[in-house]
Amino acid sequence: MDAMSANTQNTLRPLESLRSQRWLARDDMRSFAHRQRLQQMGLRRDEFLNRPVIAIINTWSDLSPCHAHLRERAEDVRRGILLAGGFPVELPALSLGEVMVKPTTMLYRNFLAMEVEELLRSHPVDGVVLLAGCDKTTPGTLMGAISMDIPTIFCPAGPMLNDRYKGQTVGAGTHTKKFWDEYVAGNINQPEWIRLEAKMTRSPGTCNTMGTASTMTSIVEAMGLTLPGASSIPAMDANHVRMASTCGARIVDMVWEDLKPSAFLTDDSFANAVAAYMALGGSTNAAIHLIAMAGRAGIKLSLDEMDAMARRIPVIANLFPSGDKLMEDFFFAGGMPALLQEIKPHLKLDAMTITGKSLGENIAAAVNDDATVIRHVANPVAPGAALAVLRGNLCPDGAIIKPSAASPKFFKHEGRALVFDSNAEMLAQIHLPDLDVDENTVIILRNGGPQGAPGMPEWGNLPIPKKLLQRGIRDMVRLSDARMSGTHFGSCVVHISPEAAIGGPLALVQTGDIIELDVDARSLNMLVPDDELSRRRSAWKPAAQIFQRGYTKLYIQHVSQANDGCDFDFLSGTAKTPEPSIY
Ligand code: FES
Prior knowledge:
By secondary structure, the chain is α/β, with parallel strands linked by helices. The protein is built from 21 helices and 14 strands. It has helices spanning about 20-25, 30-40, 45-50, 70-85, 105-120, 135-150, 175-185, 190-195, 210-220, 240-255, 260-265, 265-280, 285-295, 305-310, 325-335, 335-340, 360-365, 425-430, 465-470, 530-540, 550-560; strands spanning about 55-60, 85-90, 125-130, 150-155, 165, 170, 390, 400, 410-420, 440-445, 480, 490-495, 515-520, 525. The strands form three sheets. An eight-stranded mixed sheet has the order 7-8-12-11-10-9-13-14. A four-stranded parallel sheet has the order 2-1-3-4, sandwiched between helices. The longest helix is centred in the middle third of the chain and has 20 residues, at about 240-255. The protein is globular and about 75 Å long. Residues about 1-10 have low confidence and may be disordered. Bound molecules: FE2/S2 (inorganic) cluster.
C-alpha cells in the first residue's frame, strides 16, 4: 500500500478533456450558474476549478451496521483527494444493509447499480471512489461504475473484528445459524440466547466469515479494482484509514491517466476473480454477481467456466464456513496478496489493475505468514471444491452446491422429496411434530427465485425440522431456486434454473418423488418418467402476478435467471448512453 500514488499531476491528459470541465469551465450562463452554486456553499473558485472532480459514492446509513464507519472513511478518502490535487464531492447511495433490508437486498442490487451509474452520469465528476462492502453493495456499485466507465477505485468497508465466546472463535452468520439450531433443539436457554445477541458482531465492518461480503471484496481485489491488500484490512484497523486516504490520492492520478474500467477489465481479470473465488471457498452468491459484473464489461462468463476452475483450485482459505478462522486471521496471515501468491500458477499475472501495474507486479512481494490460515494448495481446507455446477432434469440451466461447506456423506444421495410451494408454507410446517420427514428426506422449496419470490432471497439454507435437530441431525439435502447466505454451512443446492415461477422443472416435482444428487457426476435429477413429467407440465399454470406497479413490477419484467446473473436485460452489455446535455 505504501508504494501507491506519487500524487503527482500527470499531464498525459489535457484538462479540457475532463467531463467536469463541461459543467464548470465554460464562459456561458449555465457554467456561471454551476460555479455560482458551488460558491453558495462557501467554496473558493480555486478549490474546484482546473482540477479533477472526484465522486465519493458512500453507502453509509443508520441501518447498515457493516458500513457504520463509512462516514469517517469518506473524510479519509476526501483527504487523499485534496492532497493529490482533486476536488472531492460525496454522493450518498442506497445503503442496502444486508440484514435489515426486506424482502431481500438482492431485489435492490440492480437498483443500486442504476443509481450509481446515473449519479455519475448526471453530475460533473471525472472519477469515483466507491465506499461499500456489505453483500450486494460491492457488485451493485461496481456494476454501475463499470457501465458508466469512468476511472473507478473500489474502497472495501473491511471486515469486522474477530469475536470469541466461551473460548471459541465465533463469526457473523455462521455461528448465528449454528447457535439458532442449538436453541431450537433446546440446548441453549433463553438468558444465554439473549447474551449471544451481543456476540459474533464485535465492531462495524462486514461479516468476518468468508460470506458474500468478504468473497466479493476479495475477488474484486483479484480483478484489480482495489488497492493491493485492501479487501483484507479490518474495518477498525489504522491501516484501513490509510488505505481509504490512498484510494483518494490514487483516483486523482487515474483520472489524469484516463485509466477507466474498460482499459483494463478483460477476460483475464474475470478469470483471476474466479480463481480467487475458488481458493477462498467463496459464497455461492458470487457466481451470480460475477456473471452480472462480467456482462456489464461485455464479457460472457459461464457457470461451466466456474465449475472447471473449481476442479483445478482447492479451497485454501481456512475461513468459516469452510474452515475455522476469521478475516482478521486472514489479514494477519497476509490477506489476499498472500492467497494469490499461493495460486499464482492459475492466475493471469499480466492482467492490469487500478495501480497501473499488473496483478503479478502487485503481489510480487506478498508473503504467506501463516499456513494454518492460508493453506498451501497441496494441503487444502476441505475435501470438496468451493463450487459444483449441477445439471439434470431438475435444473437444465444449472444449479449450485458448495461442497466445501457441505457434508461429504451427501455428495451422493437418493431421497424422498418433501416439497414446499412457498417460504411461508415451509416456515408454518417445518417444525410440526408430525411432519413426515427423516434425515434422508430431500427438502425442497420452490418459488424462491428471481421472479418467484421476487428477488431471490437467501431462503436456500432451509431449516432442519425441530424433531430432527433434537435427534442431533445438523445437515440434510435441501434444494431450492433461492440463494443462501455465504456464511452458512449445509448440503444445500441453490440457484436451480430455470426457476419454478417461470415453469422450470422444479415446478413439477411432487412430495414423494425420488431425488438423486451426485456431486461428483455434477447431476441432480428427479426419478420421474418423462410421460409423467409431460402430464404434470400440461397441468401447470403460473401464479397470478400480485406486483402490479412500481419497482418490483419493473424487476419481475426485466430480471434474468440466476445462471445469467440476475441483471436487468436493459442494463447488461456495453452499449453507450450519450453524455447528458448541460443546457
Ligand atoms: Fe453486512 Fe454480512 S450483513 S456483510
